[in-house]
Task: inverse folding
């Protein structure tokens, strides 16, 4: 019981106490990074060197939506990175789920880029129907990505015995599944509002602000779980020391 609660000093752990099983670099990691790199190149405003000041001014005006899009895609990459360094799984389920995730990410880049170009006035004024379709495409891609994150964690949890999850890691994984599912559900809510209220399609994107309090709450849950497990481990260790 004690060994399942306490950490092995020779292992690497995340700040939340989750053992990092995927610190090595595999072909799956390499392939995933290539796809993310290609997705980032699709966000580039222009691959041509400006020939005059007018082209330079137009290029610089596009850097703000590019920067926002770049940041959001990097957050997706960071979520993917955390999953694979925590779980380190390479089974068939992981391969298929990761393949679907990368496919969706490549699709997600286009509405992501166009949405923020529109938001910063770089693509002209969109009609109500077109804005509705754009928001639904973006929010649908967003929701699919985070549901696939939840599925990857669920696939790891399914292998908890083989991966030798501690009680802390089991609890954290259940929290990760809930966190990613909740984040994805916010995207679904945006889709629902955009579909039912076409005139409010752009305003529906404000619902994405719910992600910050949701992530903060789930971070609190994970921290509380770790503190509870650490206290339990200390309580077991003290009588043995005596």
Result:
């Amino acid at each position: 019981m004690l060994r399942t609660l306490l950490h092995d000093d020779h292992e690497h752990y995340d700040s939340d106490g989750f053992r990092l099983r995927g610190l090595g670099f595999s072909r799956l990691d390499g392939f995933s990074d290539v796809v993310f790199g290609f997705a980032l190149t699709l966000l580039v405003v222009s691959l041509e060197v400006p020939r005059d000041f007018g082209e330079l001014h137009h290029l610089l005006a596009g850097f703000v939506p590019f920067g926002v899009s770049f940041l959001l895609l990097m957050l997706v990459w960071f979520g993917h990175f955390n999953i694979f360094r925590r779980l380190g799984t390479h089974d068939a389920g992981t391969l298929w789920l990761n393949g679907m995730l990368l496919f969706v990410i490549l699709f997600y880049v286009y509405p992501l880029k166009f949405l923020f170009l529109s938001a910063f006035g770089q693509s002209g004024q969109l009609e109500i129907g077109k804005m509705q379709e754009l928001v639904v495409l973006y929010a649908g891609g967003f929701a699919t990505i985070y549901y696939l994150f939840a599925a990857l964690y669920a696939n790891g949890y399914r292998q908890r015995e083989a991966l030798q999850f501690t009680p802390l890691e089991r609890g954290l994984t259940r929290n990760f599944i809930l966190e990613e599912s909740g984040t994805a559900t916010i995207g679904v809510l945006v889709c629902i509002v955009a579909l039912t209220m076409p005139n409010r399609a752009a305003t529906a994107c404000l619902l994405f602000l719910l992600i910050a309090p949701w992530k903060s709450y789930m971070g609190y849950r994970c921290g509380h779980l770790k503190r509870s497990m650490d206290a339990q481990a200390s309580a077991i260790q003290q009588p043995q020391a005596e």
